[in-house]
Amino acid sequence: MSLDKLMEKFLEQSMEAEDNFYRLEEQRLQAEDKRREEEHSRELQMLQMLGQIFNGISTPSPAPQATPQPSCIPQTNPTVPFTRPPCGNRNHPPALTEFASHSQPAGPGLLMEEGETQFIERSFSLGTARMDSVIPLVRKTIPPLTSKKHKGQDGRIGIIGGCQEYTGAPFFAAISALKVGADLSHVFCTKDAAPVIKSYSPELIVHPVLDGPNAVEEIEKWLPRLHSLVVGPGLGREEMLLKNAKEIIERAKLRGIPIIIDADGLWLVAKEPSVIQGYQRGILTPNFMEFTRLYEAMHHEPLDSTDHKRSAQQLSIAMGHLTLVLKGEEDIITDGKNMLTCSQEGSGRRCGGQGDLLSGSLGVFAHWAFSSPPDATKGMNPSLVAAFGATSLTRQCNRQAFHKHSRSTTTSDMIQEISSAFKKLFES
Questions:
Q1: Residue 356, annotated ligand binder?
Q2: How confident is the model over 209-246, as pLDDT tens digits?
Q3: Which residues form a coiled coil (predicted)?
Q4: 146 is in an annotated binding site
Q5: Which backbone phi and psi does 217 adopt, to 5 degrees?
Q6: Is the dihedral of CA 204, 141, 283, 348 positive or negative?
Q7: Which of 22, 163, 299, 339 could make a disulfide contact with 236, Cβ separation 3.0–4.6 Å?
């Protein structure tokens, strides 16, 4: 058989195999759609049954006061007896009214000793029946899309970082900010890093000034135009760069700009905590190793690794009630007074760059939260609301990308999921 005929036969077999693959994939998707429809139908039937049951339940009698429990033990709700109303009574009890309006009570608090900080813990798990009270607050801070706005109004974010060794991190942070909804994203990096970062995307504004003789003055000129600052992605630990970053933070604080500090920016804070200590619009986003370094720098004693929540609270208080996002199996967010935990499903994939996605998106959420009217966050610290929005979005991107790429998932794959993840969490 000639080579041409062999090639022709091979192509025919390849096309046939491809057709079979797509046919099987279509059948699988149809079966999956059918399964979801059946599951949705069962859920509707269950809700209807619950509604019928609640229709026959009267207002519950007041619950007896629970005896205070020892420190750090969750308080359990006492059993409340229900009585069946007379025949024909169809008034909805308060519990059903809350259920119908999707208004759920906050998660259980940790009962502390008198005089200690009261924790307000909330966990967000996508797909569960329990609606969290923080996601609606995040939604209220997100500006609507309208043709009446001008360029830059929804966010001009500055990234301080990018050196010869690290060019990916500032790119990930800057492009994530754009994908979340910022209008403009600036990267202030070293001269060597600028051409590389520019080559990644034409959508970023790259300033090769971070290692220049007048770096602080050059960047300060842009501060009035920026809505938030992300310091640390790809910054490196060269003394001159850290010194410039410190001075930029000081000048940004004078303008009241939200400042997110991550990566090597946290190395700077561990060396000189006063650079951000007490600044109420500052947010730190350490992983466990960075957190340990910060904790031991502030407390001059080893970290108690058995109680991350308590340690996070202590560090936040020591830093002047600075908002802290301790990244881990669950993300712990605290300002020393209140605490949120984001335990939404992510994945087991821990590729580099995920923290840059978080810090870049947090820069945008922080601008939105601090620009919103006070009633949008219902009195909650805007930094907490912004941090919860960014952590839940990052985890959702991780989850979606992992379902598609499994072990091969990278941060670039996660960034491609920002649009659909954002819509799923905040616009559905």
A1: yes
A2: 999 999 999 999 999 999 999 999 999 999 999 999 99
A3: 7-34
A4: no
A5: -65, -40
A6: negative
A7: 163
Residue 223: CB atoms within 10 A of its CB come to 15
Residue 331 assigned as binding residue? yes
More confident residue, 332 or 110: 332
For helices 418-426 and 382-405, the axis angle rounded to 10 degrees is 130
Q: Is 288 annotated as a binding residue?
A: yes
SS3 334: strand
**Residue 234 is labelled as binding a ligand:** yes
Q: Using one digit for the tens of pLDDT, what is the confidence trace for 166-181?
A: 999 999 999 999 999 9
355 marked among binding-site residues: yes
- More confident position, 122 or 283: 283
291 is in an annotated binding site: yes
Q: Is 349 annotated as a binding residue?
A: yes
Asked whether residue 420 carries a pLDDT value surpassing 60, the answer given is yes
For 326-355, what is the mean pLDDT?
A: 93
State both tokens at 200: 């990644």
Answer yes or no: are the C-beta atoms of 257 and 229 closer than 8 Å: yes
Q: How many helices and strands (H and E) does the chain possess? A: 14, 11
pLDDT tens for each residue of 381-399? 999 999 999 999 999 999 9
392 assigned to a ligand binding site: no
**Residue (of 95, 72, 69) closest to 82 by Cα position:** 95
Is 104 annotated to bind ligand? no
Pairing label, strands 110-111, 323-326: unpaired
**pTM value?**
0.71
**Calpha distance 342→333 (Å, rounded):** 8
Dihedrals phi, psi of 278, to nearest 5 degrees = 85, -5
